[in-house]
Amino acid sequence: MKTPWRKLYILSFAGALSWLGSSLTTFAVMLRDKDQVGASGISVYLLAFGLPTIFMAPVSGLIADKFTSRQVILPALFVMGASSLTLSLGFPLWWTPFALLITAIAGTLVGPAFQAAQVSVTEKEDIPRVSGIMQSFASAGTLFAPALGGILVASTGYFWPFVIDAVSFWLLGVVFFALNINRKPVLHEDGEKMSATAGLKFVFNDRLIRAITVLIGVLIIALGTLNVGEVFLAQDELHASPFEYGIISALFAAGSIAGSLGTAALKLDSKRHAMAMLLGLVVLIAVVFMMSIAWHWTVLAVLSFVAGVGNAILNAYAIGIIMARSPSEALGRVNAAIGAVIQTGSVIGIVASGFLIDLYGVRAVIFVSAIVSAIILLIFGPEVRRAGRAHQTAQ
After folding, report:
1. Is the confidence at residue 395, as pLDDT, over 50?
2. Does 217 have pLDDT greater than 70?
3. CA 338 → CA 61, 153, 332, 341, distances in Å?
4. What's the count of helices (H) and strands (E) in the chain, helices before strands?
């Protein structure tokens, strides 16, 4: 099997447009509702995005392995587009988290199926590079979203960001269908049943994947404060305008592109993948600490770029390790299981940070989260490093 680079580049471009649309929705919703719902309300929005990954994990992973990629991805993308479109129709404020929840539930089906389909046509040694390419295109889409969102909101209001998001989901479905990338269902021997928990069992039976999942899952509890707090830090503490906040978000995406292109171009020995992933985590923790003492929005913008680089390195190598070591017949369930474990940490962090930011202020919460994150890395990082020495992508 040879990796179909041309198809993957086209799919990456369509994915970039979808990420552009999704980022427009996030940008518009945050700006539109921030003053009305506060930090706790923003936490509710993020929970609407995050909770489905947890409670849908056994179902979404099983569906990804039991049906063809087309049967899963195309209907789910249609639902995601329709849900995003409702945000443009002037429904009451209470509808927003429900629309986000519907989009997220459908997205839990797309994620594992999309990842499994991508891996099914990619040579194992190319997986980190393909992940980097996919991530760089996705980051390119998010790079333009804040600037475009600022222009659209200022000139036309909040209607068009949501419409563009809806169309981008439907366009991705058309491209996926046209490229004919379609992973077949997993076939089992007569009488053998597909276990929804097979992915979770594999995750915790593989020493390296278990170490990575525990480390990132626990770290996200601490680092989750930034998801809620960034908009308040930028606008309330550093007095950034909506356009300047857009620049901050855009530079995170630019950093993600730089980091993703680097991981796509650099073919590291597999034994170094775990160390590269840990380097990405070190960069992220250092950036969060510096953000807590940032004195101007331009400082926050530079730090966002560096955070994007670290995040890209972390994602490319963590995903590459996990997908390369996972059995092909359970790719969907492994992907869903890991997403559920990590998202559990994210949800805990979001719930805690929304309450703590309202209580103690955004700077104090981000500072403490950086210190706690460093301690977590010192505790769990060595196990990832030890287990990573024996990693071989050819297994």
Report:
1. no
2. yes
3. 10, 36, 10, 5
4. 14, 0
